[in-house]
């Protein structure tokens, strides 16, 4: 047999794997550190001060975003020789994030606030870079043991921090702050508003951001624990995985994120629908789950809706502003990151201020016009559709897909794109998922199926 016939040439797996374990581990450490230290919205990055002592570097919740960009640069340089283009790639789908970023650059020409737009553009460039890092580099490792271990450790730390807040941490923080004579001017209003409530947010700045992080990473981290304990008996493995899943569900409940509750319920329903169970039994489980989940939602939040659902009303006001801006500037919008400027001119004097539209897709329309919104929503929707689990899909890819889908749904009412820790994690895993999809099904989008052997 000739040397040529010993190698497949139809797909990305033909490239010898020279990635090595340290590149995925470095990527995992980067994402893990981001979850702990880079959760302030990008539009607030100028207010984040650099720590001055070692103790502050360790315990301060947020570091300046410039540190994150420096670490991302090191991560990229560490693997620049391992970026590879291979046969079998689709001709257009992976390039949608790049087209979206290019449109953001065009829309910057009409910006109402150049400084906000510049900060936002740098952030958008970082998330697109991580998408291609995941697609071209990280996807060469189908199991990601080093990456998953690093992310799991950080996820546990984030989860423990949130639980500590619920069991007295928030109250202790309030008492410490209120004892200071200048507390009303010393701390940002956003921070004071957060700690005045009993909603936990851990290291992810906002309760709803914490909920989005739980939705994004709980499936991946739970699977990592399950597979990492395969040497144990099944009951022990269930117990260990449960020690992560149950606290994560409790933390999601204590964030009091209404959208997080509904998105999690939708993901479980979707997962059950894809299971190969006896049909009547599956329908019964779905009805029981849906009715129980919605009943619990009503029981928990009935008083909230009776009082007028203030956050829902506020979001409707934000969305109305975003939509009107998109209609007034349908091509380029008002400029990336400038929603707070257009909303300030639109809002009712009695309405509360906001920096973000609490809907990533509508904010894209407001900030970068209808084409920007279509490119962003289209890129996410088409990639998630392309990577949807099949019967033969590996468990890791399934867990990542459910997390990605939940995060994308959550951002219909939130702003995860503008939280660096979450956006970096999402786009890196999105790129990895798409890269893995084409390694498993390496035909290009337009290539005909291979001919059957004679």
How would you sum up this structure, described in words?
It is a single chain. This protein has 454 residues and is mainly alpha-helical. The protein has one domain. Helices cover 65% and strands 0% of the residues. The protein is built from 17 helices and no strands. The longest helix has 34 residues. The two termini are 19 Å apart. The N terminus and C terminus are likely disordered.
Structural descriptors:
mainly alpha; disordered N terminus; 454 residues; globular
Question: Outline of this structure?
Answer:
By secondary structure, the chain is mostly helical. The chain has 17 helices and no strands.
Look at the structure and give the mean pLDDT. 86
- How would you describe the shape? globular
Largest sheet: none
The end-to-end span amounts to 19 Å
How many structurally independent domains? 1
Query: What is the total tally of β strands?
Result: 0
Q: Structural class given helices, strands, pairing?
A: mainly alpha
Low-confidence stretches: 1-16, 444-454
- The percent range for helix content is 55-70%
Work out the radius of gyration.
Answer: 23 Å
């Amino acid at each position: 047999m000739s040397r040529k016939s010993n190698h497949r040439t139809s797909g990305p797996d033909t490239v010898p794997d020279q990635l090595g374990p340290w590149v995925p581990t470095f990527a995992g450490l980067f994402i893990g550190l981001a979850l702990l230290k880079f959760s302030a919205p990008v539009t607030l990055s100028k207010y984040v001060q650099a720590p001055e002592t070692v103790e502050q570097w360790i315990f301060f919740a947020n570091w300046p975003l410039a540190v994150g960009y420096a670490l991302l640069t090191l991560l990229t340089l560490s693997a620049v020789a391992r970026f590879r283009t291979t046969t079998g790639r689709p001709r257009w789908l992976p390039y949608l994030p790049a087209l979206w970023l290019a449109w953001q650059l065009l829309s910057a020409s009409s910006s109402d606030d150049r400084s906000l737009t510049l900060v936002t553009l740098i952030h958008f460039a970082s998330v697109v870079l991580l998408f291609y890092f995941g697609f071209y580099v990280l996807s060469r490792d189908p199991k990601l043991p080093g990456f998953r271990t690093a992310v799991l450790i950080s996820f546990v730390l984030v989860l423990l921090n949130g639980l500590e807040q619920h069991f007295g941490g928030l109250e202790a923080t309030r008492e410490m702050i209120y004892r200071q004579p200048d507390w009303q001017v010393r701390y940002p209003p956003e921070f004071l508003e957060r700690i005045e409530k009993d909603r936990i947010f851990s290291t992810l700045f906002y309760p709803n951001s914490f909920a989005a992080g739980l939705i994004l990473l709980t499936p991946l981290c739970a699977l990592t624990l399950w597979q990492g304990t395969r040497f144990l008996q099944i009951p022990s493995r269930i117990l260990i995985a449960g020690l992560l899943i149950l606290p994560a569900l409790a933390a999601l409940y204590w964030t009091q994120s209404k959208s997080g509750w509904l998105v999690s319920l939708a993901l479980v329903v979707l997962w059950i629908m894809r299971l190969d169970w006896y049909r009547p039994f599956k329908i019964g489980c779905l009805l029981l789950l849906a009715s129980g989940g919605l009943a619990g939602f009503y029981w928990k939040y009935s008083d909230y809706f009776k009082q007028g659902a203030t956050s829902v009303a506020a979001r409707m006001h934000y969305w109305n502003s975003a939509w009107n801006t998109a209609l007034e500037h349908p091509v380029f919008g008002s400029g990336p990151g400038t929603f707070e400027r257009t909303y300030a001119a639109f809002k009712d004097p009695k309405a509360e201020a906001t920096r973000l539209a609490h809907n990533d897709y509508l904010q894209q329309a407001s900030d970068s016009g209808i084409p920007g919104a279509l490119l962003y929503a289209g890129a996410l929707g088409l990639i998630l559709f392309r990577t949807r689990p099949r019967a033969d899909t590996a468990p890791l890819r399934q867990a990542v897909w459910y997390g990605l889908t939940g995060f994308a749904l959550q951002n219909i009412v939130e702003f995860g794109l503008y939280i660096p820790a979450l956006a970096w994690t999402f786009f890196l895993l999105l790129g990895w998922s798409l890269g893995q999809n084409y390694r498993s099904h390496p035909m290009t989008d337009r290539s005909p199926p291979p001919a059957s052997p004679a």
